[in-house]
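Entry:
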Amino acid sequence: MKIRLAISIFAGAPLLMGAAAASYTGQALLAQVPPLPATADQAYAQWADHNGDLQEGAGFAAVERNLLAAQANVPGVQTAQANANALAQRYGTPQGQAELQNMTTAQKMALAQQLAGQFNPGVAGPATVSPQDQVLVRQANPYPQMAEVRTKMQWQNDDRALDNQEAADRAKLKACPGEAGEPSDIGVRNVARAYAPKHAALAQTYLAKFAPLIQQVRQTLLPEIVYDDNAVAAWNKIQNPTLKAQVQSAAAAAANGGIQDVTQLTGFIAAPSKFAAEQIAKQNAMERRFANAKGC
């Protein structure tokens, strides 16, 4: 799912704005990630329900804003943006277009690489990854992604089984007399109400299974984020402009590393939170639908 980044810590202004790059720390972003809810009701409170369409609540929305602000303040990003703007102005004129037309293929490739570097400071360029390296990367990855996927799939399967049981009970309802031959709205509502707490209880069970996985991710990420924060802090203290420029890409990579770590943790929490919240959203939608339910 896309992470579009309800607790009081998010009530303040965005963490990073303008030239306040030195104030960025991954640890500050990490502290703002919403906690994994323990119940479906707690999960529902983390989202905004727009007639059954769940959107990020205050917590996840604030994390997204601050991550975007942090990304804008990665070392070199503002300078790169200024350089890219200068290139756009140069080649956006008729004279610049003519210059582009007269460039050789090699010159155009060099210009494309320059632009790519401007917009991706601290990110390594593409390279061929051998099958051996792909295996090693999977072995070195400390995050319990497969366990998270398996747990989510088991939850979905169990939730679907409840849906099937509910459909079977609904099929047992007596049909009202008449051409439609459908059961009464009250009967359908009563079956739905009987299964709503079962879906919520199932959500609580699986949220408890996600808790140790989330804790493992957090414990793994924290040392990395501290290391990245220290690298960025050290770069900010360098006084010599030439030396600072030489290690800017390393500082940018460290800043991006912290941002990516926080983004990953947020995703690990948001996915089960939203699925749990959907159980309450469906219950609320059912109550709205059958607000004026009648018998046969």
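The chain has eleven helices and two strands.
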